[in-house]
Amino acid sequence: MTSTNAVHVLGIGGSLREGSQSERALRIALDGAAEAGVTTELISGPELVLPFYDTALAERHERAVRLVEAIRRADGIVVVSPGYHGALSGLVKNALDYVEDLRDDARPYLDGRAVGLAAVAFGWQAAVTTLEQLRTITHALRGWATPLGGSINTAETKFDEAGGASDDKTVRTLRLIGSQVAGFALSRAGH
């Protein structure tokens, strides 16, 4: 857990397009976490433009250092990726590869942290396969994927700038994902 009593949830995701559908979905999930009583932080889109992860390099770009430190501090994480051609985006995958820098920590990788996951794609096939890939990566990084994950088809659901979506069920699902991450983190902190 973090060194203070505040429980902290980090959101990672989105695309290079600021205000993308996947970033808006991530913000809704983080709102659900905040409503459960935790602090939240968002690292999205342009902030995730990082050099390709390379274990052989000791030097890290300042954005990579910020990302790794934010993951290190986080008691829970929400990851939302766009689905591109049936898979998660390279932007999000590369960001998750940087979790390897936590391998020697007291809490290695995502150990002991709930990870809420959602995939946003124009079509069900890419949304579902991207969510499954995110779950597989989370398990490989020793994270606890929340019971609920979100597959969101933007052919049917559109997110708005006000923090909502055209489908109330999607908003409820995303908020519940954020709430599950916060609840797990709060219970581990003894709150």
Automatic annotation (TrEMBL):
SUPFAM superfamilies attached to this UniProt entry: Flavoproteins
GO molecular function: FMN binding; oxidoreductase activity
Domain NADPH-dependent FMN reductase-like: 8-147
GO cellular component labels: cytosol
Source superkingdom: Bacteria
UniProt name for this protein: FMN reductase
Organism this protein belongs to: Amycolatopsis thailandensis
